[in-house]
Design a protein that fits this description.
With about 800 residues, the protein is of the alpha/beta class. It is built from 32 helices and 25 strands. Strands 1, 4, 7, 8, 11, 12, 13, 14, 18 and 19 form a ten-stranded mixed beta sheet that branches. Strands 22-21-20-23-24-25 form a six-stranded parallel beta sheet, sandwiched between helices. Strands 15-17-16 form a three-stranded antiparallel beta sheet. The radius of gyration is 27 Å and the shape is globular. The structure holds ligand 26W.
Amino acid sequence: MHNYDPASFHTAIEGKLKRKHRTTLEEATDKEIYYSIASIIQDLVMPKWFETNQEIQQNKSKQVYYISMEFLIGRLIESNLQNCGLLDICNQTLLDLGRRPERIYEQEHDAALGNGGLGRLAACFLDSIASLGYAGHGSGIRYRYGLFEQRIIHGNQVELPDYWLKEEYPWETRKPDEAVEIRFGGTVHEHKRRDGSLEISYENTDSVMAVPYDVPVLGYHNEVVNTLRLWSAELSPAENKGLSASDQQYYHHLDHIHSIEQISGFLYPDDSTFEGKELRLKQQYFLVSATIKNIIANFRRNHDLPLSMMPEYTVIQINDTHPSLAVPELMRILMDEEGYGWEKAWQITTNLLAYTNHTTLSEALEKWPVSMIQNLLPRLYMIIHEINERFCEQIYTTHPELRDKIHELAIISYEQIHMAHLAIVGSFSVNGVAKIHTEILKNKEMKNFYTLYPKKFNNKTNGITHRRWLQQVNPCLASKITDVIGPRWVHEPHKLMNLLRYTNDAPFLETMKDCKQHSKHLLAKYVYEQQGVKLNTDSIFDVQIKRLHEYKRQLMNVFHIIYLYNELKDNPNMDITPRTFIFAAKAAPSYHLAKEVIKLIHHVASVVNNDPDIKDKLKVVFLENYNVSLAEKIIPAAEVSEQISTASKEASGTGNMKMMMNGAITCGTLDGANIEIRDFVGDDNIFIFGLTAEQVLDYYAHGGYDAKSIYHADVRVKRVLDQLNGGVFGSQEIEFKDLFYNIMYHNDPFFVLKDFGPYVETHEMIDRAYRDQNHWQRMAATNIAHSGKFSSDRTIMEYVSDIWKL
Ligand code: 26W
């Protein structure tokens, strides 16, 4: 994509600094250098971006649109440099200039337009789609505030706004000419035309402009540049009344402008429970309507064909149910604006849409009150109502065996609209994100739908981009891998399997260990700079990094730490492999119990880290403000990857794949993709423990679990819980009573006590296994070798061949 060498790259930076920042290489700030490099990349990207679009137009390639309320892309500078083949040259140039590359790159503010797994998956997918050379685009919202910034004050999480657009975002291009109008509210009028068709008109609607900002998505070394289009809500010119401050209506008008800008104002920070907030519904409709209008406009630009041909050239993947208003919105446009009858419109719609489910947690499933949709989207409500009527009638006539289940299947029931049902009925494909998750959908959560539409359901096990999560974040390991198996694995990640030939190669295992030590030192340095805590880099780095949720059971990890602490206090000379427990996690601002766990981790850390009896044997650190960039620092240094969700709850997990790819050994339950990791690496290269999903679901269905009896029977458990309840960790006795009560009097809904014993024993095995470093490195190499199957390239190839047919 470029023909720079270090000398000409140096000159290019110099030129940018002079022209754009009126400064010199010597005097420029890190930020000015960052902007200069970004600008050089943009200059290279623009023509390729144009050419990619031209090619799609000329070849009439089928395109996929990935609609998602979240794209957790993090920083782009390094991956963009890497993908256009400039990373080494840039690093070298910066070093020659006496600048530290990482200092330059960290000038970029993370684009945190996502909560966690679902948003990061969308980002990995875009990378793989472009790198594999497919025509695929993301469509999302340009939130002015991304996921909150987390600060910890006296052990408590405090949320600060993430105003990531404070400074110019160099990767985006505003496209005002492609703005579209979105309408909310008002009243709908239906007029019958002479030919019997309906004419729909609206009165008193509020209108908003959706203005696109395009971010380029670079393929790896292939000159492909796809688009992530992020929509921003702005005042529609029709509504810009140009009032002056003396007008009576002035403040009312300012209010109105404010309410419009709110639509793309912030990302909702809750991925644990569904809350029927009207603003969130507005965001969803805003995204969906803008995207669909855009897709239709693109189709018209590229083809001289009727819209009924769209499914041959276009497919729309909806990321969870958040964009499922795409079903009625497509119907609306096809019928009201394009004149198709119901049957034809339905055929087009259901051949365009495919839906991915990312959770079975019932509290997270979206259900909107009928009244809210009626008020905000009156025409869409009419259509949803009709879809529901026809759907229920169809079950009644074609599936008599499901007649008594209609109320469970209905899209509208008890004055609520079930978005998952709408998404399933309106799509041609429904997929889960790991084998077990898809099985649970088919046999339990969506069982009746599976009976109705067995062919729609399919599995697509998640993946991660190995370019970012191995090559970029762990250059040391990546280069050692290339030294032994050659560079082909970067294009064909399954080739990492060739590492299996080196699992007994002592020199290779030794270099792997050196890389891990190097990463551990870098992380230790960061921790020291951040919080003045010195880590023992000879200890096991045991990592749990993910959103804070009860089902992910960070609490069980803490209980284990307290248990180890007790053991060491009783017997300070106990023979134990030193451990560093590393946490990072954000809790939804309204999730009380999750915030209590964050506080508990801090209190336990302060007791353990400051107890002279413990010496270097145990350390607990919580790194604040978990985001993509922090994950990139921690993951290369991880040795044990904690994936300990209550079985059946974690749809897939993707952090498990990232750590495995960096040579960490998974300590996990039989949940989500852990099961497939185990199937690949074998029982000897993973630490599995705990209840199975079947057992958990059986307890939920039939009872039979009693947390209190474990409390009374297991002295280790009783001691930990009594300490929790007795003020040992905390400034006052009642500090953690809610956590204590939840276990004791709500019968431990996530089976922390039940799995505690097996978890302790598994950690004893880990302790022993780590002592045989040769054996440990062999396990690590085996994990890396199998991790290629969890590249999102593999996932995307499956979407392409089974669903998208690009
Ligand atoms: C409406 C509130 C809300 C918002 C987001 C509820 C639920 C969500 C997401 C579906 C939660 C999520 O991120 N799910 C995660 O998706 C990952 C990618 O498929 C999986 O790896 C994780 O297991 C799953 O928890």
